[in-house]
UniProtKB/TrEMBL annotation:
Compartments, as annotated in UniProt: Membrane
The UniProt record lists the keyword Acetylation: no
Protein name per UniProt: LemA protein
Family: Belongs to the LemA family.
Transmembrane annotation, as ranges: 6-23
Xref: InterPro entries: LemA-like_dom_sf, MamQ_LemA
Keyword Transmembrane helix annotated: yes
Main subcellular location: membrane
Keywords noted in UniProt: Membrane, Transmembrane, Transmembrane helix
Pfam families the record matches: LemA
Region (Disordered): 192-272
Biased composition regions of type Low complexity, renumbered to the chain: 222-249, 259-272
Record membrane topology: Single-pass membrane protein
Protein source organism: Kribbella sancticallisti
Length: 272
């Protein structure tokens, strides 16, 4: 009887420890999500502070782009007003603001003087760095949310989540098509990379044989050198090619396998 009581007590203790560990892990993950979201919120506030300065700088050079500036200001105010909203709602507002900023940057391309303005370049650089930090924080936040939501749905941790009212967290997703688009690759510039050589071109009037023939150094015509004709042992001091030129007999006899004299021709004598 005592052994049964000890076993029951041990099981209860093990379950209590497992319950405590699982609960503490939920709390830790929830706090990590909140901390990662605060890092994103800091960068978003920095972007809110940079936008008015950037708009005023652009306005000084492109005053007639009034509708673009008004749209950026309206969407910035809208994003600031939803700071206490869930991540999904804030992500929608930030996507609209990013689209308006991109439209303003496109209009800047028509003003070369603005693109060379040092104040504009500094603000643009700071805004780009802020956007990069927001993207990095968003990836970290979404990864933590994914782990947290998985534990809420998985068994047996879902029993702890339902008992202590742990709810699923929302993602901070980007619905901007410009961010999700695949970069375009131009195959027309592959051959112009430094250090690469263009493929050899055919000479004018030459017919293609389906293979690329490389250029041979020292041959000005761009073709292969003419192969040497098999030579028969020549006389001393004077080379003799076989077959002989027309009207000249070969020296020393033909090589093995050469055809014999035809009818009407003098036999091979081996000397001139």
């Amino acid at each position: 009887m005592t052994l049964v009581i000890v076993i029951i007590v041990a099981i209860v203790v093990i379950l209590a420890i497992a319950l405590m560990v699982s609960y503490n892990r939920f709390v830790k993950q929830r706090n990590l999500i909140q901390e990662s979201w605060r890092q994103i919120d800091v960068e978003l506030h920095r972007r809110y502070d940079l936008i008015p300065n950037l708009v005023e700088t652009v306005r000084a050079f492109a005053a007639h782009e009034r509708h673009v500036f008004e749209e950026v200001a309206r969407l910035r105010t809208q994003a600031v007003n939803v700071q206490g909203a869930p991540p999904e709602q804030r992500a929608a507002a930030e996507s609209e603001l990013s689209g308006a900023l991109r439209q303003m940057m496109i209009s800047v391309e028509a003003y070369p003087q603005l693109q060379s303005n040092q104040n504009f370049l500094n603000l643009q650089r700071e805004l780009t760095d802020t956007e990069d930090r927001i993207a990095a924080g968003r990836r970290f936040f979404n990864a933590n949310v994914g782990d947290y939501n998985t534990r809420i749905e998985a068994f047996p941790s879902n029993l702890i989540a339902n008992s202590f009212k742990f709810e699923k967290a929302g993602y901070f997703e980007v619905n901007d098509e410009q961010v999700r688009s695949v970069p375009q690759v131009s195959f027309g510039t592959i051959g112009s990379v430094a250090g690469e050589q263009a493929p050899p071109q055919m000479q004018p009037g030459a017919q293609s044989s389906g293979q690329i023939q490389p250029q041979i150094p020292g041959n000005e015509q761009g073709g292969y050198p003419q192969p040497q004709i098999n030579q028969y042992p020549p006389q001393q001091g004077q080379p003799q090619q076989y077959p002989p030129q027309q009207g000249q007999p070969p020296v020393g006899g033909p090589p093995a396998g050469a055809p014999g004299p035809q009818d009407g021709q003098p036999p091979f004598t081996g000397s001139h």
